[in-house]
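User: Need the bound-state model for magnesium ion:
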Amino acid sequence: MGKTVYLGMIADIMHPGLINIINEATHYGDVIIGLFTDKAIATHKRLPYLTYEQRKKVVENIKGVSLIVPQDEWSYTHNLRTLKPDYIIHGDDWKTGPEQELREEVFKVMEELGGKVIEIPYTQGINSSGLIEDMKAIGTTPEVRLKSLRRLIQAKPIVRILEAHDGLCGLIIENLEVKNKLKTEVFDGMWSSSLTDSTSKGKPDIEAVDLTTRLQDLNNILECTTKPIIFDGDTGGKIEHFVFTVRTLERHGISAVIIEDKVGLKKNSLFGTDAIQTQDTIEGFCAKIHAGKAAQVTNDFMIIARIESLIAGKTVEDALERAYAYVNAGADGIMIHSKNKSGEDIKEFCLHFRKLHPSVPIVVVPTTYNTIYEKELCEWGVNIVIYANHMLRAAYPAMRKVATLILENERAAEANEYCMPIKEILELIPGTK
Ligand code: SPV
Ligand code: MG
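Assistant: Bound-state model below.
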């Protein structure tokens, strides 16, 4: 090779701006594309629509590209030090905004290596972010959505899921971004909770809301979002019924069902030992997992076994014995639940479980041990954190407050400051006008 020029790319959606920059790069030397892996992207932005392999296939057929290497980190440093290119090329849009630090780092490394940074004017009017908005408006397919949970588990240190019981919750989870200095934080997907699905209908969380009813509401969420959904399958019901549930969920593009190892009239786990919580036998629950796995049509759908030992007042040893058995029966992941406030029992479980199963996904629901940061959960070996009921718990007091103010004042003026402006609600839903 003569001179080389490095160009980092996600290349999820190809557009003229990217072709321009590749063309420009060819003027400096042989173009090496550092193609960002899912892992590199997922810690900073939403997962791309296309997988790494699919994106690679597109990029390797673009004129002017000499070589593609994976860029496995958001930072360019590792690849630049390894490849020592003569140039790196980047759009000048990184001079402001969250990529400024990345830019400074690149300048430092290139100076050390005796190379140069080329910045070219950003192609106005067309960029990936704008196209992502358009893609969101088009939506997704059940297949793409279903697969995306497994991709996220592979790509992210911890997958962040929030409860959604209607389309509005779905829109918040789909679109909300919080930018801090280094990264953009997002929710990765949604939890369809039996507790909030029941509560929002004024019913107790005892499997009284049937699957058909829950799916009707879930359909509203499916229509306005693209992110993966984990379905709270309660006990899974009778084995003969569970096999139909699995197929129905798959057909809708749901990524995973979590079933809990309880029998009899199901009560919400957060009652702990205040309610009678009877656990299934290990054999009985393994048979249910097994039947579910045999029934599923796709390879990607996940059946996650939820262990209620700690909720029922039993030991971590009991929970571990069950976890090992459920994994052997085919469970694609384990959810360990507790209502202990310290999180110590969950930590102990995770550390033990990880010794025997380094990569079986662990799911936790830190409703009571809510002081533990995601980073710590991740260090315990947790793969998925579910904030299981927060959207409903936030909505109810807000609605009650406004209702109270109207009653107290016999008019709505005093409640106005707690309500979203009419203009905002009219503009909230895309396509309203
Ligand atoms: C739910 O959200 O319905 C759950 C989690 O099953 S918990 O309420 O903590 O049991
Ligand atoms: Mg539930």
